[in-house]
Design goal:
alpha/beta; 2 domains; 5-stranded parallel beta sheet; about 15% strand
């Protein structure tokens, strides 16, 4: 089946070709899907998109006009897709529901450790031949209280890892995980207690109208002074401008993010020769207690294998007009 792959990155190209094994005619494009690039899909039956591609209603209408009937996501999240419009126009849409919860969970804990032990600052100092330890004091993870907001596949793995550090784990989710409670001592509670008691808060929920800007001035004011805040889920879970205020008044002591609400057109690209136009992330970069990675938490060989193989499986299902367990 003729398929246009938008936002093809160098790191995934070999995995896509290997998983496809010449089953489908893949047209690999490095440009994102936008209203201006939708016409590039003309002549294909399917398109595959990444996390920051635009699959809003106007774009889907243009894809439909170009003859596209199948939309295959290379991501678990689908908040960038107007599913209502896709269904209205007869599209079949599928995602990659799980690729490697371990990859994202391990990156989450890596952010905690790097921030706590100030590893980036320490490394930079040593490369400048500065071997002073002043200003590098961290804290023991042992005995600290961690609040996990969302205990789906990723949040559950985070809990299991932190159990190994002997952390006290508080959590909240619509569905309580009995195994986490029984085996790892996870205590399910409400947001109020998590904000009040947690030394570290980590977010693992999808972006919905209910969760958008769940971290804002109001919630930050309820947190422990000096709290560590980690977000490897979706950028718009936090109001970045409110978080900057929290960093300035030291209510937030550490911030680790792998996602950013305005990351489209910024993350996944080399802007080293450009003048950064985003004043908000520019401000974040001035804090020495902020660690930002550019949406790389998923980036392991295992995850890429799973993402690409599931993508090709979804294309196979659509081409054969068969049911697809990953269909939205």
């Amino acid at each position: 089946m003729d398929t246009v792959i938008y936002s093809t990155h160098k790191f995934e190209k070999e995995y896509l070709l290997k998983a496809n094994d010449s089953k489908h005619n893949l047209r690999l494009l490095d440009v994102p899907l936008t209203s201006e690039t939708a016409y590039l899909a003309k002549g294909a039956k399917a398109v595959s998109i990444f996390v920051n591609d635009d699959a809003s209603a106007p774009v889907i209408e243009k894809l439909s006009e170009a003859g596209i009937r199948f939309l295959v996501l290379r991501s678990a999240g689908y908040n960038h897709v107007n599913l209502e419009k896709a269904k209205q126009l007869g599209f079949r849409t599928a995602r990659v529901p799980a690729y490697s919860p371990y990859a994202v969970a391990e990156h989450t804990v890596a952010l905690m450790l790097a921030l706590n032990r100030k590893l980036i600052r320490a490394n930079n100092r040593v490369h400048d031949l500065n071997f002073s330890l002043d200003g590098l004091t961290g804290f023991d993870m042992h005995g600290k209280t961690v609040g996990i907001i969302g205990t789906g596949q990723i949040g559950a793995v985070v809990a299991r890892i932190l159990y190994g550090f002997d952390c006290k784990i508080l959590a909240t989710d619509q569905v309580e995980n009995e195994m986490l409670k029984e085996k790892y001592g996870v205590i399910y509670t409400d947001y109020e207690r998590i904000y009040k008691e947690s030394d570290i808060i980590t977010l693992h929920v999808p972006l919905t109208p209910a969760t958008r800007y769940m971290i804002c001035n109001e919630s930050i004011s309820k947190m422990k002074s000096g709290v560590m805040l980690i977000n490897t889920s979706r950028g718009a879970l936090i109001n970045t401008k409110d978080v900057i205020v929290g960093l300035k008044n030291r209510q937030i002591g550490y911030l680790g993010i792998d996602v950013y609400e305005e990351e489209s057109g910024l993350f996944f690209e080399d802007h080293s020769e450009d003048v950064l136009q985003d004043d908000t992330i520019s401000r974040l970069l001035t804090f020495n207690n902020v660690l930002i990675t550019s949406h790389q938490a998923f980036l392991t060989d295992t995850a890429l294998d799973n993402i690409t193989s599931t993508t090709i499986y979804n294309l196979n299902c659509f081409e054969n007009s068969s049911s697809c367990e990953n269909e939205l």
